[in-house]
C-alpha cells in the first residue's frame, strides 16, 4: 500500500512546527511498520516542498526500512511542484507496482501555494493511480488564508473533512488520526479489523 506525504517545509513552518512535524512523521512511520504482514505492507514516500521547488525527501520504501532524516524549513510554498513530483512517483512502476493497493496522498500545509498548482493537481488526480487515491488534507496553524483553506478543501477526498491543527501542540494527535485512517484502509483491503477512530487519544 503506497503512501505519499506532501510536506510543506516553507519558511512559515520554521521552529516548533517543523520539529513536531518531523517527530510526527517519524512516529507514523513506526506505526506503519508495525502493520506489516503477509497480507499487506505499507510503503512510504515523502515529498518536501519549500524554497524554489519540491524534492523527494524519502523515496518510496517499506515503512519498516525507512531511516528517517529530519526535514528543514525555508523559503516559499511550491505546491504545484510537489504535485508534479507526486505524479512522477505514482507513474514509476518500480515505486508503485501494478499489484499495489490504491495509494493514499497526505498533504500537510500551513499556507497558500506560491506557484501554479491547479494544472499539476488536475494532472495528478486524473492519472491512473491518482484517480484511485485516498486524499487526506491536513492544515497547520490558525492563521491560514482563504486561499490556503480552499486549496486544502480541494485536495481532500469528498466527504473527508480537512483535518486541522490550529495549535502547534495538536500536530502529533492529528497525525495519530491520519495513521489510523491509513491503517484502517489497509485492514479494509486485507480483511482485517480496522482501528476505531473514537478509541484514539487525540490529545
TrEMBL record:
Pfam families: VWA_2
Protein name from the UniProt record: VWA domain-containing protein
Listed InterPro entries: VWF_A, vWFA_dom_sf
Organism: Actinophytocola gossypii
Domain VWFA, residue spans: 2-178
Signal peptide range: none
